[in-house]
Amino acid sequence: MPDVKQALNLDDDNHIRLVSALTTMGDENALFSTYPAAGPNKIRFVARAQSLSDVEEVVRRYHANVFLIDHQMARGAGAGEALITLVQRLRHNPEYPIITIGLCYDPTWVKTFEEAGALGTVNGPLTTLELQRLNDELPVAMNKAMQERLRPDYISRFSDGAIKLIDSGAWQRQTISVWSTKGGVGKSFLAREIAVALGVICDRRTLLVDADMNCGDQHTYLRLSPNQNIWGLAKVFKTNGNTLTPAMVQQYLTPYAANLSVLLGAHDMAMTAQAELRGRQGEAYAEALLDTLGAMGFDFIIFDLGQNFAEPMHLVPLKRCSLNLVVVTSEKSTALEMEMALNGLRNERELKLDNARFRLLLNKWDDRIGLDARELIHRLGLPEFARVPFGTDLKVDISLNQSKPLVLDPPNEVSNAIIGAVNGLYRPLETLWSGRKGKAKKKFRLPFFGKRHAKTLR
């Protein structure tokens, strides 16, 4: 059973350690008088932070459980975004959640604090009545934080409200393919990670389409049932006189987490050989699928494509996607195969193979192997979009075998590089990613707060 003391980092006497960032000495004095650093009270005021920038250091130094902040601390250019990021970083602190309570002199800040991820607010100045409200709200807030952390589907990501506050709107919807002429270069891995970053961390409405006609593996990499898949939808399309509607497509989408859905692939090679996916019928289906998905309001659609660009389910997305990420590695044979394939694609009149829509994604890259990136870019005639390092710690392989996206684990050199690439598509991701520290794995027992606030956790 969950141990709330361990979950919330409480000491043996169940004391709650509070740190403040307040603009008035009167409020600090009221806190100190009500919650002295030593005494019988459950809440103890242990330290103050003088600015937003030193809050996390003070919280770590005193192992605080609760952070009380005056909204007037968020002043100056970028201070609002810094406050939102701070609240989310504390809430998703890997060792234990740190609860933020907002002190509002201006009532319009109540909603802002709630959207930023604070678990409560009190009004300023801190009168006896408001301090009693704080006393009453903290047990509820701490139980909420603990139960959030205990949920089996808990993911360390910013709240929906926080994302809305950070999002400047300076981005555009994109349909993106991840493609290469060679197997084993990391296409499916990269497609998965990009989709999870956009749909789960950024909470944008995202669809991952497993269109690999060599054999789709995203169901394995995401631990999803493959029964509703791209071939099944192709049969529906043909049965209905080559007609496809959003309602038909929606029935074949599998939700993953947050705002990410998946159209799973043909997981058996026998499926990819069926008439519904090949020749003119396959081309008609692929065209209808992109038309229909475009009308369904997704912010981002990510296609995981197989090698052969002659396959309709590969060629049509390459023709129509707003961005095609061409994956190459530092292996010489991959580069040579890609050079021949790109020369062939340039003869496709409808493809318009240009630098704006086709960009190189250098994966598993290590300069020590001997392939020169500058020469590769020159020979392939495409600019570099991003570079993902080789990664020598096996985290990529482990994430695939455990069916757990790498960008949902604590940051490492590979996931940092992937996020850097995706940040070019959705700028708020940089702020969201900077708040991630990973997720703690702890054993828990039931809450100590008593029957009035405790809830049974199953």
Topology:
Elements: H1 4-8, E1 16-21, H2 25-34, E2 43-48, H3 55-62, E3 66-70, H4 79-91, E4 99-104, H5 109-116, E5 121-123, H6 128-150, H7 160-166, E6 174-179, H8 187-201, E7 206-211, H9 218-222, H10 230-239, H11 246-250, E8 254-257, E9 260-263, H12 269-272, H13 279-294, E10 300-305, H14 312-320, E11 323-328, H15 332-345, E12 358-365, H16 373-380, E13 384-389, H17 395-401, H18 413-422, H19 429-434
Helix pairs in contact: 5-7, 8-18, 13-14
Summarize this structure as a short list of keywords or feature phrases.
19 helices, 40% helix, elongated, 8-stranded mixed sheet, Rossmann fold, disordered C terminus, alpha/beta
Describe this structure as you would to a colleague:
With 458 residues, the protein is α/β, with parallel strands linked by helices. It has two domains: 4-164, Response regulator (Rossmann fold), CATH 3.40.50.2300; 171-426, Rossmann fold (3-Layer(aba) Sandwich), CATH 3.40.50. 40% of the residues lie in helices and 16% in strands. It has 19 helices and 13 strands. The strands form two sheets. The protein has an eight-stranded mixed beta sheet with strand order 8-9-7-10-6-11-12-13, sandwiched between helices. Helix 8 (187-201) crosses helix 18 and helix 13 (279-294) runs parallel beside helix 14. It is elongated, with a radius of gyration of 26 Å. 45% of the residues are buried.
